[in-house]
Amino acid sequence: MKLILLTIGLLAIAIIGISIKIWAKKDGKFAGTCASQSPFLNPDGENCSFCGKTPEEMKNCEESSHS
User: Record's superkingdom (predicted)?
Assistant: First the structure.
Protein backbone atom coordinates (compact mmCIF):
# COMPACT_ATOMS: atom_id res chain seq x y z
CA MET A 1 0.00 0.00 0.00
CA LYS A 2 2.88 2.36 0.81
CA LEU A 3 4.41 1.73 -2.62
CA ILE A 4 1.15 2.62 -4.38
CA LEU A 5 0.79 5.85 -2.39
CA LEU A 6 4.43 6.75 -3.06
CA THR A 7 3.97 6.11 -6.79
CA ILE A 8 0.80 8.21 -6.95
CA GLY A 9 2.52 10.99 -5.01
CA LEU A 10 5.55 11.06 -7.33
CA LEU A 11 3.33 11.06 -10.41
CA ALA A 12 1.29 13.92 -8.96
CA ILE A 13 4.46 15.94 -8.32
CA ALA A 14 5.63 15.32 -11.92
CA ILE A 15 2.29 16.36 -13.41
CA ILE A 16 2.15 19.47 -11.22
CA GLY A 17 5.70 20.38 -12.28
CA ILE A 18 4.90 20.02 -15.97
CA SER A 19 1.70 22.01 -15.50
CA ILE A 20 3.61 24.86 -13.85
CA LYS A 21 6.16 24.84 -16.68
CA ILE A 22 3.42 25.06 -19.33
CA TRP A 23 1.62 27.79 -17.37
CA ALA A 24 4.83 29.82 -16.95
CA LYS A 25 5.83 29.63 -20.64
CA LYS A 26 4.54 32.14 -23.16
CA ASP A 27 1.57 30.61 -25.05
CA GLY A 28 2.08 27.34 -23.12
CA LYS A 29 4.68 26.02 -25.56
CA PHE A 30 7.85 24.14 -24.74
CA ALA A 31 11.07 25.55 -26.17
CA GLY A 32 13.28 23.36 -28.34
CA THR A 33 10.94 20.47 -28.99
CA CYS A 34 13.29 18.69 -31.44
CA ALA A 35 14.89 16.32 -28.95
CA SER A 36 16.60 14.42 -31.78
CA GLN A 37 18.86 17.46 -32.28
CA SER A 38 20.51 16.98 -28.91
CA PRO A 39 24.18 15.99 -29.37
CA PHE A 40 23.68 13.35 -26.69
CA LEU A 41 20.71 11.73 -28.46
CA ASN A 42 21.94 12.29 -32.03
CA PRO A 43 25.74 11.92 -32.14
CA ASP A 44 25.69 11.24 -35.92
CA GLY A 45 24.08 14.61 -36.74
CA GLU A 46 21.07 13.16 -38.58
CA ASN A 47 18.11 15.33 -39.59
CA CYS A 48 15.21 15.82 -37.17
CA SER A 49 12.66 13.06 -37.60
CA PHE A 50 9.82 15.50 -36.83
CA CYS A 51 10.55 18.61 -38.88
CA GLY A 52 13.44 17.44 -41.10
CA LYS A 53 15.86 20.21 -40.12
CA THR A 54 19.59 19.59 -39.90
CA PRO A 55 21.49 20.32 -36.65
CA GLU A 56 22.90 23.49 -38.26
CA GLU A 57 19.39 24.75 -39.04
CA MET A 58 18.26 24.05 -35.47
CA LYS A 59 20.68 26.59 -34.00
CA ASN A 60 18.02 29.24 -34.71
CA CYS A 61 15.01 27.00 -34.02
CA GLU A 62 11.65 28.65 -34.58
CA GLU A 63 8.55 27.18 -32.97
CA SER A 64 6.42 28.22 -35.97
CA SER A 65 8.03 25.52 -38.13
CA HIS A 66 6.50 22.81 -35.94
CA SER A 67 2.92 24.00 -36.30
Answer: Bacteria
pLDDT, tens digit, 9 for 90 and up, residues 9-32 = 999 999 999 888 778 876 666 665
Structural domain of 60: 31-67
- Three-state DSSP class for residue 41: coil
**How many domains are contained in the chain?**
2
What is this structure's pTM? 0.44
Q: Give the pLDDT confidence score for residue 33 in this predicted structure.
A: 61
Distance CA 64, CA 51 (A): 11
20 and 45 housed in the same domain: no
